[in-house]
Write a structure and sequence with these properties.
6 helices, 43% strand, disordered N terminus, 374 residues, five-stranded antiparallel sheet, alpha+beta
């Protein structure tokens, strides 16, 4: 083998080894990384990034229920044998569901500036793709909006449109007399007087109860085949069931419900771990309120850091000299920790979760002139 051929093979092997290396270094004077503060000015040829901050997005679904008594509630037991009917108006709320998810935002206290003095290679983009750092990107906030407008409530279900009576005003005729003078005497002349009479509440209730019992008897005849209806379909039964509910509501009362959605954003802090922190207030009579409201009882969030990443600090080499302390060629990044989360009101647990929380983890640094391989 000639010297020229051997030299060519050695060169090719060296290039191949460099291409397959996972890390490589550049000049240690090319990159300066400094925290962004009052004394740091951002100039051209700089890259600004921030460390991620975990924010909890809490969605609350609450159900509002309204109860109103029927106009014939006093006669429910006497005429239909109904007990435990609604006798007074009431409104109450209950929490149906609580969901928690995490979103990553920019930590305003963790901004850094990367300045390059020459051709710069850095880990910043690789760390960003891995979610360990964030660039200044407004798109991250594009989905953090929520409308608290729930739309107009439909109360039509609380109206008693049919009171079940055959007639609500009846006309009665009566004979009256008037005196008319004829010559030296007075005579009485009869004439008809019509009077409108409104039935009493008990009479109306009796008519509605009679109709309800007739409907139930007719439904029984249809289901047993003793009565023929046209058309031969479920339409007749469906209509009888609807009327049955309406007439029963006249005695038992009506219940109407709607569900409303609320959203809260909560930023956890390391000092909150192991403690209960109020997220919002809840009142069984007024619903969901802000945490600073004096109405209702507080709903707490409790977080416990599992310290899954606490030992990462052990692999960080301690700085022993003033020269090392003055080094500014470090890329700072954040490793999140796992937190166990519980949202509760009193003794009732509404939601439990395990989530990654960046600010519960560690902030580490690696030399800026080391480039992660693909």
């Amino acid at each position: 083998m000639s010297n020229k051929t051997l030299k060519y093979l050695l060169t090719a092997a060296t290039l191949s080894l460099v291409a397959c290396t996972a890390t490589k270094t550049v000049s240690d004077k090319n990159i300066i990384v400094t925290p962004l503060g009052d004394e740091v000015q951002v100039t051209d040829a700089t890259l600004v990034y921030a460390l991620p901050l975990t924010v909890f997005e809490i969605d609350v679904v609450a159900e509002r229920t309204i109860e109103i008594p029927g106009p014939y509630a006093p006669f429910a037991s006497e005429m239909l044998g109904l007990t435990n009917v609604i006798t007074s108006e009431d409104e109450y709320w209950s929490i149906v569901d609580v969901n928690l998810r995490t979103v990553e935002e920019l930590d305003p206290s963790q901004f850094y500036v990367i300045q390059g003095t020459t051709l710069m290679q850095t880990n910043a983009l690789s760390l960003k793709r891995c979610g360990l750092i964030l660039d200044i990107n407004p798109d991250i906030y594009s989905s953090k909006s929520f409308s608290h407008s729930q739309g107009q409530s439909d109360y039509s279900g609380l109206i008693f449109s049919d009171l079940g009576a055959n007639e609500y005003v009846s006309t009665e005729s009566d004979t009256a007399y008037k005196l008319v003078k004829a010559d030296t005497t007075f005579i009485r002349i009869p004439y008809l007087v019509e009077k409108k009479k409104k039935p009493t509440l008990e009479e109306e209730a009796s008519a509605a109860a009679t109709k309800l019992l007739e409907l139930r008897e007719g439904k029984h005849l249809i289901l047993t085949g003793e009565a023929n209806v046209f058309p031969q379909s479920a339409a007749a039964i469906d209509e009888i069931n609807r009327l049955d509910r309406e007439y029963t509501g006249l005695f038992a009362g009506k219940t109407w419900s709607e569900r409303r959605h609320f959203r809260f954003w909560f930023t956890p802090q390391l000092s909150m771990t192991g403690k209960k922190t109020a997220v919002f207030n809840f009142s069984s009579s007024e619903g969901v309120k802000q945490a600073d409201s004096n109405r209702g009882e507080p709903v707490y969030i409790e977080m416990v850091a599992t310290n899954k990443t606490k030992d990462i600090n052990l692999v960080v080499r301690p700085l022993t000299s003033q020269k090392e302390l003055a080094l500014s060629d470090r890329i700072y990044y954040r490793v999140p920790d796992v937190a166990e989360i519980r949202i509760s009101q009193g003794n009732t647990v509404l939601c439990t979760a395990r989530k990654l929380v960046y600010q519960f983890g560690n902030t580490l640094a690696l030399p800026a002139n080391f480039i992660l391989g693909r």
